[in-house]
Design brief:
- It is a single chain.
- The protein is α/β, with parallel strands linked by helices.
- The chain has two domains: about 10-270, Alpha-Beta Barrel (TIM Barrel); about 280-349, Alpha-Beta Complex (Type Iii Antifreeze Protein Isoform Hplc 12), CATH 3.90.1210.
- The chain has 13 helices and 14 strands.
- It has an eight-stranded parallel β-sheet. A two-stranded antiparallel ribbon has the order 1-2. A two-stranded antiparallel ribbon has the order 11-12.
- β6, α7 (about 140-145) and β7 form a beta-alpha-beta unit.
- α1 (about 30-45) runs parallel beside α5 (about 90-105).
- The two termini are about 50 Å apart.
Length: about 350
């Protein structure tokens, strides 16, 4: 079974789901707000908090248009101007990384250019996250792979062949520990478009850990994903859905984030293992709930057992009804009173 280690956490099959609270750019370019988001992630019980590291000039051209959802949430203007306002400095990220470390939560960030990769490498982050939009950015994939750290890659907007190409580029580049996240790049993503069964497809197609990055409203999709075998969950969160910014609307508020984490942990408890067997409590209840073969009437020694003299009643501490056909035609070795259990020693075999 595939397993990797991110900081002090084991991630993979039969391990607790690795939950990433995606702060992204919901700090609105303010370090103090970013710290508040780290505190919220900790309070919710997430394993890691993640941001996005980029140099706008290296990532977005001056004439790049906004996505429709960005126009709806931030109004008119260029994508460049919108993102530039959300850019944090290297010093900012150092401050946030140290803050997260002091608070006891894993600090992660998604780099969008080589300079940002270097910034995060300098901060010694335990893993790199690659966003869906970069899955065909082979130069960046190779550069990240060279760092020889665990890589988490989202696959929104991609077909399976593109995922395969990206994984191959990463492996050839030197990456060994890879987590693939199913993702629908839509903000918010519609429930009917989530296609969560792809989690199973990815698990069957690649020798990698598989998880899910969710952009839908609410907490249902991540819970379903965990039930389908997702080992990593990434979910956007914010202080307030009504804040100005591109991703707030598709993010969980603090109370919802904690509800999601708690629900995932409950889901993990309920999944158990694949062996069909009674629980300890069921073993006790089985004696009461199951039935045994009993005497329908008083039976004298030497009587031939027939359906007319036998019955099936609780408790289940005697001979199971599944042995009824074996008893029919046999002879009673002793007198048996009505409703008395028929035991193996009562039958002349």
């Amino acid at each position: 079974m595939a397993k990797i280690k991110i900081s002090d956490k084991m991630v993979g099959d039969d391990e607790p789901c690795f939950i990433i609270a995606e702060a992204g750019v919901n700090h609105n370019g303010k370090v103090e707000l970013a710290k508040d988001l780290i505190d919220i992630a900790i309070e919710a019980g997430a394993d890691a908090v993640k941001f996005q590291t980029f140099k706008t000039d290296s990532t977005i051209s001056q004439n790049a248009e906004k996505a429709e959802y960005q126009k709806e949430t931030t109004g008119k203007g260029s994508q460049y101007d919108m993102v530039k306002k959300l850019e944090l400095t290297e010093k900012d990220f150092q401050t946030l990384a140290e803050y997260a470390k002091d608070k006891g939560i894993i600090f992660l960030s998604t780099p969008y250019d080589k300079e940002s990769v270097d910034i995060l490498e300098h901060l010694d982050i335990p893993a790199f996250k690659i966003g869906s939009g970069e899955i065909t950015n082979f130069p960046l994939l190779r550069y990240i792979a060279e760092k020889r750290k665990p890589i988490i890659i989202s696959t929104g907007m991609a077909v399976l062949e593109e995922v395969e190409e990206a994984i191959q580029i990463l492996k050839v580049g030197g990456a060994e520990d890879i987590v693939i996240l199913h993702c629908i790049t839509s903000y918010p993503a519609k429930m009917e478009e989530l296609n969560l069964r792809v989690i199973t497809t990815l698990k069957n197609s690649f020798d990698c850990i598989v998880g899910y990055s969710d952009h839908s409203r609410g907490i249902y999709a991540p819970i379903i994903a965990v039930a389908l075998g997702a080992c990593v969950i990434e979910k956007h969160f914010t202080l307030d859905n009504n804040m100005l910014g591109p991703d707030h609307r598709a993010s969980l508020e603090p109370v919802e984030l904690k509800q999601m984490v708690d629900a995932i942990r409950t889901t993990e408890l309920s999944l158990g293992h694949e062996i069909k067997e009674p629980t300890l409590e069921e073993i006790g209840i089985k004696k009461v709930a199951r039935r045994s073969i009993v005497a329908r009437i008083d039976i004298s020694k030497g009587t031939v057992f027939t359906e007319d003299v036998l019955d099936v009643k609780r408790p289940g501490t005697g001979l199971s009804p599944k042995h009824m056909d074996e008893i029919i035609g046999k002879v009673a070795k002793k007198d048996i009173k009505r409703d008395e259990l028929i035991l193996m020693d009562d039958v002349e075999w």
